[in-house]
Amino acid sequence: MHEKKPGLFRKLMQKIPLLRSLKTYIFVLMLAVGIIPSVILRMGILQSYEERAVSLRATDVYTQYMIIANHLLNYNYLQDTSSEVINAELDQMSNLYDGRVLIINGNFRIVKDTYGISEGKTVISEEVIKCFRGESTTRHDSNNGYIEMTIPIVEQVEKDGRETSQVRGVILASASTDSIVVTLDILKRKALILEIVMAVIIVGGVLFFSHILIRPFSRVTQAINEVKDGFTDEPISVPDYIETEHIVDAFNQLLARMKVINDSRQEFVANVSHELKTPMTSVKVLADSLNQQPDAPVELYREFMQDITEEIERENKIINDLLALVKMDKTEAKMDISTVDINQLLEATLKRLRPIARKRDVEVVFESIRPVTAEVDEVKVSQIFTNLVENAIKYNKEHGWVKVLLDADHQFFTVEISDSGVGIPEADHEHIFERFYRVDKSHSREIGGTGLGLSITRNAVLLHRGSIKVSSVEGEGTCFTVKIPLSYIR
Length: 490
Ligand code: ADP
What we know:
The protein has 490 residues and is an alpha+beta fold. Helix content is 54%, strand content 18%. The chain contains eleven helices and twelve strands. The protein has helices at residues 8-15, 22-74, 84-96, 126-132, 178-228, 242-292, 298-329, 342-359, 378-394, 441-446, 453-463; strands spanning 101-104, 110-113, 138-141, 146-159, 162-176, 337-341, 363-368, 373-377, 401-408, 412-419, 467-473, 477-485. A hairpin with a 5-residue loop joins strand 1 and strand 2. The longest helix has 53 residues, at 22-74. The structure holds adenosine-5'-diphosphate.
């Protein structure tokens, strides 16, 4: 399969272990939540303070110059700038607001400049033209720290019996905003100090809380380590969070499964040793009794040697069955899949087993509803058939019968092996597939059983993703049904 390339962030995460820590993310998140709003708040408050202060100053300046505009008209200042009173008033204003005042008459000429440098010059700027139309303007130059505004000098005149306003001239005034800037700087400094103090408190708090928040996860690791190191094998519990509870639940389930596996492994080893020891004990008893009788007759030797050979054969059979079982016990047992004619395979199996059946006077019948070919591991399927038919013959009655029925649908083929034998008690149904389990130990031993056959059979069936079922009535007979997919499911 085509592997997805890790993204840049994933690569970074692999290189920098800190980026893979939940603690880092909690830390960054809490820090962002704590600090970003305070930064935004500071910037917002300072900005709105500045706007408000400038707007107040502008209104103040405007009002003052509106009053002066009236005085200018009263003193006819646009025509004659010699009025001491007005000049003093203008100088005072220019000093008060630390700015410049230009008085422009109806011809766009500067009649008065408090700086005294532009008198007599003409000004035709956009603002001035707008102002002559009656529209006063205000502009704030925050870089250079001043407000510039135009104020119309309006005269009320009677025309055709109606009062109309006429703009006679324009006051172009500037006012410094330095005092606002100074206040703003002080505020900024204070806000920054406050923010640094807050940041320190937040960082401390966040460090503390991210540590506290992550603690249950450390407890999970600690509890798992205790199990790993063998201090306990009891289920662990960290109920602090739902998340830790989920992890711990999954771990406990794994622990329980491993216990079951371990128990069954121990039981298996105990069973294997016992089963392998039994024939050996018999061999030793037989050999010992011969050794103790130096004058034993040859017939006795022959008889005992025959028994010893049988016990060795039994040992051999157990070992072979064990090997077959171990091979198939692996979850990923190697499967040698090919297309197999199931009818032919069943017939060959029955042919091999008929002599044994004949010996026990058991009739074997094969019935096939349709020809079946399937993708299977031939050796393993042959083992399934052999074990089941052999059991049906072994656990049969005299003059009994074994019937093998083959059928298939579009997905599976089914083999039913029924017999007229001793049957299996209901309570044993769930156990017969366990390793070394036998319903009647002595009878099974007598007829050469190892208790591994059905276990091997079930493993072989499961490797084909199939199923095996048993139905039986004690004393009447047994029926095993094997169902295997026609195409192998990988
Ligand atoms: P064994 O080698 O003892 O036959 P198996 O695993 O093949 O071991 O079978 C387990 C037990 O199931 C047998 O000991 C026997 O008691 C019972 N059994 C299996 N097949 C049949 C059958 N067809 N009829 C009656 N009992 C059976």
